[in-house]
Amino acid sequence: MSIWKKAISTAALATALATSTVTVAQAAPMRIAVVVKALGIGFFDAVHKGAEEAAKQIGDVQIIYTGPTKTTAEGQIQVIDSLIAQRVDAIAISANDKDALVPALKKAMQRGITVISFDSGVAPEGRLMQLNASSTPLIGQTLIKLAADHMPNGGEVAVLSASATATNQNAWIAAMKGEMKNYPNIKLATVVYGDDMADKSYREAQGLIKTYPNLKAIIAPTTVGIQAAAQAVEDAHMVGKINVTGLGLPSEMAGHVHSGASKSFAIWNPIDLGYAATEIAYNLATKKAVAKPGAKISMGRMGTVTLDEHNDGAMANPFVYDASNVDQFAKIF
Amino acid sequence: MTSPTVVQRQIPDRLNSPLSRALRSWEALLVLVVIAIFIINSFASPYFLDPWNLSDATYNFTEVGMIAFPMAMLIIAGEIDLSVASIIALSSTAMGYAMAQGAPVPVLVLIGIAVGLACGAFNAMLVTRMGLPSIVVTIGTMSLFRGISYIILGDQAYTGYPASFAYFGQGYIWWVFTFELLLFVLLAGAFHVLLHRTSFGRMVYAIGNNPTAALFSGIRVARVKAILFLLTGVMSGVAAVCLTSRLGSTRPSIALGWELQAVTMVVLGGTNILGGSGTIPGVVLAALVMGLVTFGFGLLNVPGIVMSIFIGLLLIGVIALPRLWSRLQARRS
Q1: How far is the first Cα of chain A from the last one, in angstroms, to the nearest whole number?
Q2: In-domain check, residue B7
Q3: What was the pLDDT predicted at A24?
Q4: Distance (Å, rounded) from C-alpha B169 to C-alpha B167?
Q5: What whole-number distance in Å separates Cα of residue A103 and Cα of residue B243?
């Protein structure tokens, strides 16, 4: 055997060895499935973006972004079954039905898959933990702060809510009232209800503008109400005098932000939510954290989440949108 | 004088031998499709040929298949029932209500089937007694039955079915064979005998081909149709028991859109949508095709919308192919 041949074969062997070591070192990446209510929804496409961001940051994580065509529990169960079949490492799901998914997700957990829910939760026995985008106290804080930020001299504010029996809205308004002790120069004039109907909300907003001439802000913790109020303020030529704020969707509010009727508003940031869900799923699947009441689990750049007695946790304050970022998010949802 | 010669002429029972008929049939084509899908899936995903995964995948078609059998007979007889999914919803709601009142498991099953029967009877009465077209009647009852569920439940759900109730939708007979799969096979056998081996089955074909001729041959057309609607109702009730047991909960949106899945299965199985022809083995094979395609695509994480497009194209192909074939034959001769 010539020296050349020997050299080449040795080199080849070395390369082969090196490649094989590399393959061993690059063990199959952890597969985290993000299951959403249905594909083709802008909000969840943004969640996917956040999940990919977290995967890139962690390194050896592959995201499987999937969901049914229609927002049905049966469709999600089919998806879960196929994910169990693929033996993914973790599932993070936003549920179409908090109860109907429980048997399928229980089966997933029995076969060693880490299951968490985010956004729209699953009943406690079907998941390790639930990540809420925000929480009632945090939303209450944000609502009054949004208004106060643009009222340096204080004054009167009014609330335009959904229906008088809406559980979510009532809880948020109660939390906001509790928080108002920190803003002594701001007075709550009244709470009116637009029943989440565009025309009724618009009329109620008109009524507020006429009844309270010194009104400085309308706070609408509902996506229908905030839009109607902004429209009413524009139509009454009160832009600059009354600031409309609350919870709204960037795509619906972009125009009103640019007209000046709304200086800023808030809603959960889906990118952050997808990012945080992926971080948590990774930490639970790698046993770096355990989901139990009182546990603190890292969410990377989003800080840590603390679980309550039902293993529920809140991610952060609602994300604030204003003229600087609303257009960017309006394209998403 | 010549004696008259008797010309012996053989009149065969069949124009083609049973074997060649079977080979040229629609069912033979479906068998090829099933085999092809099986082979493609085995190569496309390493997780496909796993008994447990295949067992999970049978849920993709067992419940819809149970409704597709009587639906095939209805369509052969020239009628249709689009209210089947809504019957499931109402029947499941009734079971949930009974469960909340503390009814034991056998009673729950009876109630589920009885409500299905009652709904079927209502459809039968409107179609056969009042002579209304079934497509219109069942579009109406589709809204009616599900509407009652929505009135009873609203955005609530019945949960907490007894543990033993879970057997129907989650239990195993032996190894990987589920209770639902066994039920599906038994029902396929029963409907096969009913349609292809009894005089009742012959009447169904006769009515579908020519209701007037059938009537003048002494067939009680209205009664046969009424029985078919009752059968469809009962089978929807059975499917409701299985699905409710599998989900472990009832919501008014349960089984949304299943009527079209069942009709798709029937038509894909070679049943003429205008009535007169079709077979039970065809429906069984179509169920397998749809189940395996859904599962295979799911393993590859193909988005649900692509699956819908594929099933849609398959369906159009199924209806167009025989027409194209007969045109080709006509041109050749």
Answers
A1: 69
A2: no
A3: 40
A4: 6
A5: 12
Cβ atoms of B231 and B73 closer than 8 Å: yes
- The confidence score (pLDDT) of residue A317 equals 87
Domains of chain A, earliest start first: 30-134+270-316 (3.40.50.2300), 136-267 (3.40.50.2300)
- Collapse the DSSP code of B254 into the 3-class scheme (helix H, G, I; strand E, B; otherwise coil) and give the result: coil
- B246 to chain A: nearest residue by CA? A103
Q: Do B308 and A69 touch (CB under 8 A)?
A: yes
Contacts of B246 in chain A (CB under 8 A): 77, 103
Gap between the Cα atoms of B288 and B60, Å rounded: 9
Domain-embedded: residue B206: yes
Look at chain B and report how many structural domains it folds into: 1
CA distance A287 to chain B (A): 25
* Integer CA distances (angstroms), A183 to A144, A146, A306, in order: 8, 12, 28
Looking at residue B127, the DSSP 8-state letter turns out to be I
- A64, closest residue in chain B (CA to CA): B301
- Whether B257 and chain A come into contact, CB under 8 Å, resolves to yes
Name residue A214's amino acid.
N
Contact residues on chain B for A38, CB-CB shorter than 8 A: 304
Render pLDDT for A277-321 as a digit per residue (tens, 0 to 9). Answer: 999 999 999 999 888 898 899 999 998 999 998 899 989 889 999
Report how far residue B307's alpha carbon sits from residue A104's, in angstroms, rounded to the nearest whole number. 21
